[in-house]
Amino acid sequence: MSDTPDQNSTPDTAPQRKKPDRFEVARLVKLEQIEALGHDPWGQRFDDHISIKDARDKSPDENGALGEKVRIAGRVMTRRKQGKLRFFNVKDWSGEIQLLFSRGDLAEEQWSLMGALDLGDIVGIDGFMKRTDSGEISIFVETLTVLCKSLAPPPEKFHGAKDIELLLRQRYIDLIYSEGVLERMLKRTEIIATVRSTLRSNGFVEAETPVLHAIAGGAAARPFTTHHNALDINLYLRIALELHLKRLMVGGVERVYEIGRVFRNEGIDATHNPEFTMIEIYQAYGNYESMMDLTEQIFCNCVKSVSDSMVLPWDDKQIDFTAPWPRRKYGDLFKEHAGIEMSDQTGVVELAKSLGLETAGVHHDVLVNGIFEEKVEDSLVGPVFVIDYPASICPLTKRKRDNPDIAERFELFIHGMELANAYTELNDPRLQEDLFLTQLDGMSEEDSMATMDHDFVQALKVGMPPAGGLGIGIDRMIMLMTNSRSIRDVIYFPLLRPEN
RNA sequence: GCCUCCUUAGCUCAAUCGGCAGAGCAACUGACUCUUAAUCAGUAGGUUGUUGGUUCGAUUCCAACAGGAGGCACCA
User: Fold this and answer.
1) Which of A176, A221, A224, A229 sits at 20 to 30 Å (Cα–Cα) from A334?
2) Are A107 and A144 in contact (CB under 8 A)?
3) Could you say which architecture CATH assigns to the domain A22-148?
4) Residue A284 belongs to what H/E stretch?
5) What ipTM was reported for this prediction?
6) Tell me, which fold does domain A181-326+382-489 have in CATH?
7) Which nucleotides of B are covered by protein (CB under 7 A)?
């Protein structure tokens, strides 16, 4: 390797500097103008500025009046010329404000510097609060500081960028120029902070468990696989947080949760991204009913953190989060919507066939659940807890003491979407071992969670207290609380196929 | 993985029943001291996603490929 590579011998395959387009060329000219005026086009530390929102609050009330001196920083969004007056709109993450440059009042050098600004540049401003003659809250600029030259042109100023692919690939464009995108993502942060504070106030501690798993357990999903070179072993990206958190409960961490990314190698659509954020929460000496209470508390606190009302808009509908939420038995809902008892062996097979489900050699409860998903889930407006699932499809769940065919499990549904899944956790190691070995008829290995994890069984043998466990799909929860139709609206960088 | 649809200037969109590809914004040049998506006048800006095919001629028709959207399947 040479420190002074011969540029003439650069092979064609070497990465090349991208040639500036005509827009970049025009902006580079401005950049040189800024440098020629003795300014740094890339800016420096800019202390003691206030948010644009706070600046706006300092505005004088009377049109034409000059107010107090302020310092702000932000990105140039729009620009209007009116002879020797120039108006700029500048935005930071708190809001937007108009700047007013006056040729007659500004130093000649400053006027030239302003002339080298482009849409998208980031500027620091010292000036006086002012209301213009038409009443617009503005800053009458005294000193302009260039903080960052933008070399790429912004999207169309009125319609903005509309191309979904562009907005997702260049999410920063979406954040800057699409109405409400940044605000929505900041709400996400606020909601997750509220989840944490709610759990903290209930005595839960946060843990970090491995992302790389030797056995991808705790849920039914196809995992991503990877390889560790030094150990020469294949590993899986986790599909759930469950089994490690339960090991922690064995270890005496009595109230524990993790907010973490999990990975499932499945299809992508409005409610599925290959990597998504889950929270799983475990409470020793609780059960699924205590987890329902906790679920309500978490959701309600989160709603309060982003809204004044417990009723949030959802498309042309609404969601009323006011607790308590109904708790409906799986079997009752099944009978209500399917018209038959779920214990009706022949009836279930006939109904499954009429719905086009494969029935040959398929376990009764698998058919029941297939029918439930077809006939019931979409009609669950909620919020509603569906409780008491068929035990055979719940291999990590404690059975009801008086009925081993029913598992103490609930799922939370809102507008047909599954938001949470919770159990009274199975802590009988011998039953757990049996269930890991049980391959339900008609279920693939991936679907059945029947992956033996001897170490987890060993942990249960050491002894896990009776407990409630709860998992919530954080992205979906945020979708509901921000009226977002797609999971990609609440994830900064959803997965896209790479270009080229 | 399967089906249908989409891809035109930096952005938002037109148009071509197969015959020189057009606007607005943005850019550039001027005029304008209270404007606020859009003042006025002018200039420039295109391998119509890529590669083939049909044709005198393809941006338009056909095929393959790439990326995207919706639906199905899978899943939370």
Assistant:
1) A221
2) no
3) Beta Barrel (2.40)
4) strand A275-284
5) 0.90
6) BirA Bifunctional Protein; domain 2 (3.30.930)
7) 1, 10-13, 24-28, 31-39, 45, 66-76
